[in-house]
Design a protein that fits this description.
This protein is mainly alpha-helical. The chain is 76% helix and 2% strand. The protein has one domain. Helix 1 packs antiparallel against helix 7, helix 2 crosses helix 5 and helix 3 packs antiparallel against helix 4.
Length: 227
Amino acid sequence: MKLRGIPTFVFAAAAALLFFRLPFLVFEKAPLDYMLYINQKIFYYHVPAAMMMFLAVFVCGVASVLFLVKRDPKFDDVALAAGDLVVTFGLIVLVTGPIWAKAAWGVPWVWEARLTQSLLLWMIFVAYALVRRYGGAGSERLASGLALFGMVNVPMVYFAVNFWKTQHPTNKVVPNLRGAMLSVFGTATLSYFLLFLVLLSVRLAVGRGQRRLAAAHDLAVENGHLD
């Protein structure tokens, strides 16, 4: 498998090295937050995961549109791979968020706008994955509709802190990072992005292999080689 001509294992090795180094940067280089103390460190895992979740949503949504327009299976393969990544990174977001919330708010979960919208987005793509696996013939088009609905929901998640009064931090936190906090956050984001590329490449290869295998099976049945 290759990404732009570069073997996937190169990206995988780079991601592994960065993730190995990341805890040292987070706990040694990045300064402590004066209010949350060491609990703030989860920020360097939570926010990049949310960014990759949003990226996966847009990849899935755009690929779904292209599939609906062109009916080319290669776009459907990309959408399916990205849809699984939304579930994966979304789960990381939903696990790390309550850890931070418990320290900041005293409770791991509140039904405020951003948290509720994030959970809804994740559930949309869980439904997407279930439709793809158990929906039968024509599930690709139905799932594409779910992907588009999920993509439309992303701005609602991101701007929820602007539209409603919420307990969640505003969107100004990342732009206001400075010094060591910014450099560590950049490293964390790069680590997650490389992981995103590797997982997308591997899942895409698996999906295309499954499609070729299914086509070979159907051809064998058609020719009477299999029952």
